[in-house]
Amino acid sequence: MDASSIKRLTYLVNTAILIMVFGLMAFFIFAKAKFLVYFSFPTILIYIIGYIMISRDKLFGYVVMVYVWITIYMSFCTVCLGYDYGFHLYGMSMIPIIFYTEYMAYKLGRNSIRGIRFSLFIVGCYLVSTLSPSIFGPIYTPDVRVARAFWVVNSIIVFGFLIFYTNVLIKGTINSEESLKNQAHRDNLTKLYNRHYMGSKLDAVEDGLQNTYISMVDIDKFKNINDVYGHNAGDMVLKKVAEVMTEVCDKSIISRWGGEEFLLLTGADESSERLTDKTMKEYMEKLRTSIEATDFEYEDQHIKVTVTIGVSAKQHGERIEKWVDEADEKLYAGKNSGRNRVII
In sequence order, what are the residues at sequence separation of 6 or more whose Cβ sits closer than 8 angstroms to the Cβ of residue 317? Predict the structure, then answer.
C-alpha cells in the first residue's frame, strides 16, 4: 500500500469515526448524559481538524492526536456509563491498529508512534476507566436494555475494525513477501528471471521427462553495440530482446543467464505438449526471426540486432551442468558458423 492509498484509507476511517461520534452524541442526549454531550463537541472538532491534517500530509500528528483522543473518549464513556455499554472494548481494538500503523510508517519511511508505549498508555486508561464504575458505580444509569443494545453495537464495531485492519495487515504482508520474492528471482534490467531462479528450475526437472529442452540465446556482436551506440543503447537492446522473448516464448521459463546471454527452459511441465527436435527448432526459429525483424531504435538510430541460439535436449541421467554445457557448445558452434542461426 502506497502513501496515496494510506491517505484515502485515513480519510475513510476519519469519516466513519466522525459519523459514529454524531450518532453517540444523539444517544447521550437521549440518555441525558450532559457531560458526554458537551464532550462530543471537542471530539467533533478533533476529527474536523483531522481532515486538515490528512490533506496536509501530517499523518504522524493525526495518528497521535486521534489515538490519544479515542483513548480519553473511551475512558470517559466507560467511567460515565459503566462497562456494560462496551466502550472499553475500543481500547482492545486500538492496540493491533497501533502496531499496524507503526508497520506502515516503517514501510513508507515516516515517523511512527511507539506501539509498546502507546499500548501501555491504553492499558492504563482501560484499567482506571473499568475499575472506577465497578468500585463507585457509573455516573449515569440509562435503561438496561439500552446498555445491552450498545454492548452489541460496540462489539460489532470493535470486531469490524479488528477484522478490517487484520485483513489489510495480512494482505499487505503477503504482498510484501511476494514483492521481495519477485525481486530475489528477477533480473533488475530485463525483469526476466535471474540465473539463481533458473538454476532452481533446472534442478527440479524430473529425470523421466524426455521432451525437455534448454535454449541458450546470445545477442550477436553485443560488444559492438555498446562500443558504437553506448551502454544505454545496449541496455535498451537487452530489455527489448527480453520483451520479444516473453511474447514469442510464452510456454517457456525465460531467464537472463548473464551479460547478453539468456536461457530458456521448455517442456519441463508434464502437461506440456510433446516436443521433438523438429518442433523445438521451429519454435526457436520463430524467436530468432522475430528478434531479427524487430526495430531497435535508440536516439533516432536504428540498430540491427540478431541472436544465435543453441538448443539441447535433456538426456536420461544427465547432470544439469553437462546439459547446460551442451547448449553452450551448440551456441558457439552457431557463432563460429556465421551467427544469426539456431543449432540443435
Answer: 207
φ, ψ of residue 262 to 5 degrees: the values are -130, 150
Question: Distance (Å, rounded) from C-alpha 112 to C-alpha 151?
Answer: 32
Under DSSP, the state recorded for 186 is B
| 6 contacts: CB under 8 Å, gap ≥ 6 | 59, 104, 108
Lowest-pLDDT choice from 97-101, 141-145, 291-295, 332-336 = 141-145
Average pLDDT over residues 276-303: 93
Supply 10's cell numbers.
Answer: 485515513
pLDDT at residue 293 tops 70? yes
Whether residue 245 contacts residue 264, with contact meaning beta carbons closer than 8 Å, is answered with yes
Q: The sheet that has 213-219: what strands, in order across it?
A: 252-258, 261-266, 213-219, 307-313, 342-343
Grid coordinates representing 214 are 534448454
Residues contacting 33, CB < 8 A, separation 6+: 80, 81, 139, 140, 142
